Amino acid sequence: MSSEEPRTDRVSNPTGLDPRYYTPLLFFVLSYNTRPPPLLPRFTNNLTLYPPCPSTTSENVARFLSHLKNSNLFPLNTMCLSEQSRASNTANSADKHMTDMSDLDLPVVIPEETRSLEVSQCLYPKEYEGHFDRLLIPKDEIAQVVQALAKQLCSDYQGTRPVLVCVLKGASPFFQHLCDHLMQQKQGFDTEFIRVSSYEGTSSTGNVQVAGGLNLQHVQNRHILLVEDIIDTGTTLSHLIPHLQEQASPKSIQVATLLKKRLPEPAKCEAKYVGFTIPNHFIIGYGLDYNELYRDTQDIFIISKEGIDFDATTLN
Fold this sequence. Notes:
The chain has about 325 residues and is α/β, with parallel strands linked by helices. The chain has two domains: about 20-80, no CATH class; about 110-315, Rossmann fold. The protein is built from ten helices and ten strands. The strands form two sheets. The chain has a seven-stranded mixed β-sheet. Strand 3 (about 165-170), helix 7 (about 170-185) and strand 4 (about 190-200) form a beta-alpha-beta unit. Helix 6 (about 140-155) crosses helix 7. It is found in: Cytoplasm.
């Protein structure tokens, strides 16, 4: 066999094209696909057998790309981008997303009237079927607001390292996602946890219990940010904040809450950072519970009568 003729006996050639024309394109494709499809080794194992391509005409390129598109071997919109184009697109996408977040006016007001949001589109354990009166806040809206709150915190705590104190258990999902966004925006922080309760069933008892869990030495003379799930009467915080001021002498104490109820009477304690203001309904989901159920959903719902009457012991 002449050294000038390409070897084709050891490699499948489904395109019907002269391999000399599509060899450079395969190198190009491979450079953008770290996990090639199963068909690729038949080409890659023999690429060195082909001599350099004498010319790559636009017609050959078009034929090759058309074949790849029809065979679904590669996502053409990915493989045809240069590194510069990819970087530009990524930056533009990130800039647009951050612009959207900066334009978000917090807190977001959830209206009194029922929003036409489908519970059936949500993911939740099957044992909760029928326990939701309606969907109040979908997970996508929650995610956007949490990111916007994180951006506010980065601006206000720039140059400092606050201690984020998660008020268990309800604030756990909000706390986790807030920390994730702070890390993405390169804001340093420390974490602590404290268990406080003033609820029994669907109403606040007014009897606040601080169960501990907080390392007071860790928060002494520090900027403390209490991370709450919801504020309604503000009873819990009105007891917790004086307790921390007395025991830890922090530089500052602020509150970030995902939700705040709109009530006729003002809350006993207000939060500087609020994600949503909501009507006066008993809500569940995304960490919020009713008798220790419903924390394990991604969305926030208004509980139904069936949910209130449900016997949780049947799940044990």
